[in-house]
């Protein structure tokens, strides 16, 4: 019995290979024998042995490396992964964005240089225009050619001279605003005037506007003697009041738009105002104006010279303040 059992177990490996390689559907009837079933039951108990002990595959099975890579395959996979990322950092790939960046930089700098080149003539054109429209008509055109006496024609002629200056001053301020803009068009340029500056500037302007009107009211009511006619007062101080109104409107617009020219706007108008009032002194002598109106004009000249000096002090303060702010920013950036 033991020998028979041993004889059946000896060809176990052979039986395992034969049964899986030569079994056909027609031979299934041969398995009805109990002995054969006993023989086939032993390999079923030891099914786990090929997964543990067998390291070689049969010829008809595919290579197991595809499903379970060895250490060498894993290293190759990682190397290919690093190579994949290295290809993204290749020389050809790096050269393309650098070239594109340089092209973009050159294309962005080119219009900026051209824009700055067009701004350079404004440094001379703006002041020249201000000189031609403001000083030349007042200094070189004789008053006798435009002043015919205390009438409407003389008043309109004087107003025309001031309108020519106002046109030149507006163009000058536009040029100054263009020169003050940053080099990069995308950067916003907003310069807000301090509230204290706006307040005191309006106080000075309103004072210079209301004081002559109060004197005119006193003269018309008989409080100031001798009386001065309205047309004579309009010739002497009418253009002054009109241009002062234009200055107030211009300053309010520069404050609202936050233009960088808010600091030089009063300087432009106040410098011409001194010349305008000096012209009024000459016309007062031709009109034989009362002494009180002549003293009023001299007082206005002194007032606006004082205000002009204060404005220039503010320009110097603002320049020093800007320099200190830029130094602090550079020190903070270095630190």
TrEMBL record:
<protein>
    <recommendedName>
        <fullName>DUF7733 domain-containing protein</fullName>
    </recommendedName>
</protein>
<feature type="domain" description="DUF7733">
    <location>
        <begin position="161"/>
        <end position="279"/>
    </location>
</feature>
<dbReference type="Pfam" id="PF24867">
    <property type="entry name" value="DUF7733"/>
</dbReference>
<feature type="transmembrane region" description="Helical">
    <location>
        <begin position="197"/>
        <end position="218"/>
    </location>
</feature>
<keyword id="KW-0812">Transmembrane</keyword>
<feature type="transmembrane region" description="Helical">
    <location>
        <begin position="230"/>
        <end position="249"/>
    </location>
</feature>
<feature type="transmembrane region" description="Helical">
    <location>
        <begin position="155"/>
        <end position="176"/>
    </location>
</feature>
<keyword id="KW-0472">Membrane</keyword>
<dbReference type="InterPro" id="IPR056635">
    <property type="entry name" value="DUF7733"/>
</dbReference>
<feature type="transmembrane region" description="Helical">
    <location>
        <begin position="301"/>
        <end position="321"/>
    </location>
</feature>
<keyword id="KW-1133">Transmembrane helix</keyword>
<feature type="transmembrane region" description="Helical">
    <location>
        <begin position="123"/>
        <end position="143"/>
    </location>
</feature>
């Amino acid at each position: 019995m033991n020998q028979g059992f041993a004889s059946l177990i000896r060809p176990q490996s052979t039986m395992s290979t034969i049964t899986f390689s030569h079994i056909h559907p027609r031979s299934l009837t041969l398995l009805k024998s109990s002995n054969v079933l006993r023989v086939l039951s032993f390999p079923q108990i030891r099914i786990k042995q090929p997964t543990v002990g067998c390291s070689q595959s049969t010829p008809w099975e595919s290579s197991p490396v595809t499903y379970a890579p060895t250490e060498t395959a894993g290293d190759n996979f990682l190397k290919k992964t690093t190579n994949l990322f290295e290809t993204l950092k290749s020389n050809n790939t790096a050269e393309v964005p650098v070239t594109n960046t340089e092209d973009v930089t050159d294309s962005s700098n080119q219009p900026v240089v051209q824009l700055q080149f067009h701004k350079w003539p404004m440094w001379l054109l703006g002041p020249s225009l201000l000189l031609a429209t403001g000083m030349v008509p007042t200094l070189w055109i004789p008053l006798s050619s435009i002043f015919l006496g205390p009438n409407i024609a003389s008043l309109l002629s004087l107003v025309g001279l001031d309108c020519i200056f106002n046109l030149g001053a507006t163009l000058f301020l536009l040029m100054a605003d263009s020169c003050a803009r940053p080099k990069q068009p995308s950067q916003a340029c907003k310069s807000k005037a301090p509230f204290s500056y706006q307040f005191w500037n309006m106080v000075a302007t309103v004072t210079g506007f209301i004081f002559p009107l109060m004197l005119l009211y006193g003269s018309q009511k008989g409080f100031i003697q001798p009386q001065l006619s309205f047309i004579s007062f309009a010739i002497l101080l009418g253009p002054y009041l009109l241009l002062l109104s234009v200055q107030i409107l211009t300053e309010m617009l520069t404050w609202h738009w936050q233009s960088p020219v808010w600091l030089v706007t009063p300087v432009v108008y106040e410098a011409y105002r001194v010349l305008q009032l000096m012209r009024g002194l000459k016309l007062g002598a031709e009109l034989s104006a009362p002494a009180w109106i002549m003293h009023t004009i001299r007082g206005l000249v002194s007032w606006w010279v004082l205000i002009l000096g204060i404005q220039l002090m503010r320009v110097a303060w603002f320049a020093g303040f800007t320099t200190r702010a830029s130094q602090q920013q550079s020190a903070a950036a270095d630190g």
